[in-house]
Design goal:
With 232 residues, the chain is of the alpha+beta class. The protein has 4 helices and 13 strands.
Length: 232
């Protein structure tokens, strides 16, 4: 019996570790760590590179549902307490195009699909003895969820993370290089910035995004992932 219990625990732990390792946030961090950042002014036209820069709003901005902060992206996770653990019941994600600047140019980030690893820095909860606030209620209503169980409030916790103006963000994806009309126009040869102006890179398609300090800290990058090796 003890042996069966031991193997059962091993299976449970292995499953939990697999879910963590393959989660979007962890995959995103590994991809970004595997790509050393380049200056926007040195981004090769048509290449797949990572850039780090300070975020600016482009045209449209979002308002984070729980905190009301201005942002270009947000991620909210709602979990419900069970007998043994917390179970995710909803994930709310929105991203709009934005700008990253690094001093050598600007990158216009226009993801058609985005893989995110955003630090959750707002945490709230609701339960039997704590009614959800107006923002939590509005969020639940928009997602088609109820704060109430059969008799009492459901035990819920909410986590929110945002990519906001002034924040340093890493982005990895394929980009097209052009002269930046905002900076007076630069001449380009082979996709690289030439003297006389600054570079504009438009990164679109599938993009990996993160504001995690473990990704952005100096020396955080690892050897490139297999699916990025050999790419231009």
């Amino acid at each position: 019996m003890q042996l069966l219990i031991f193997f059962g625990l091993v299976v449970i732990l292995a499953y939990a570790a697999h879910r963590w390792w393959t989660s979007e946030g962890e995959v995103t961090k590994r991809m970004l760590r595997g790509a050393a950042p380049v200056a926007i002014g040195e981004y090769p036209d048509g290449g797949c590179r990572r850039v780090d820069g300070e975020l600016e709003i482009l045209e449209r901005e979002l308002q984070a549902p729980l905190s009301g902060r201005r942002c270009a992206a947000y991620e909210i996770i709602i979990e419900e307490s069970t007998d043994k653990d917390w179970r995710q019941v909803a994930r709310d994600v929105k991203v709009v195009p934005f700008v990253l600047r690094d001093g050598s140019g600007r990158a216009i980030i226009k993801p058609e699909s985005a893989s995110l690893s955003i630090v959750a820095d707002v945490h709230t909860c609701s339960g039997t003895f704590q009614d959800p606030g107006p923002r939590e209620l509005a969020l639940l209503d928009r997602l088609g969820l109820s704060a109430r169980g059969l008799l009492f409030n459901r035990s819920l916790r909410y986590r929110e993370g945002v990519l906001e103006p002034g924040e340093r963000v890493a982005a990895l994806g394929y980009g097209a290089v052009s002269a930046d009309e905002e900076a007076g126009g630069a001449h380009h040869d082979g996709g690289y910035r030439q003297p006389g102006g600054r570079t504009k890179v438009t990164i679109s398609g599938a993009v990996y995004l993160s504001d995690d300090p473990s990704v952005l800290s100096p020396g955080a990058h690892l050897p490139p992932p297999a699916d990025l090796r050999g790419r231009s």
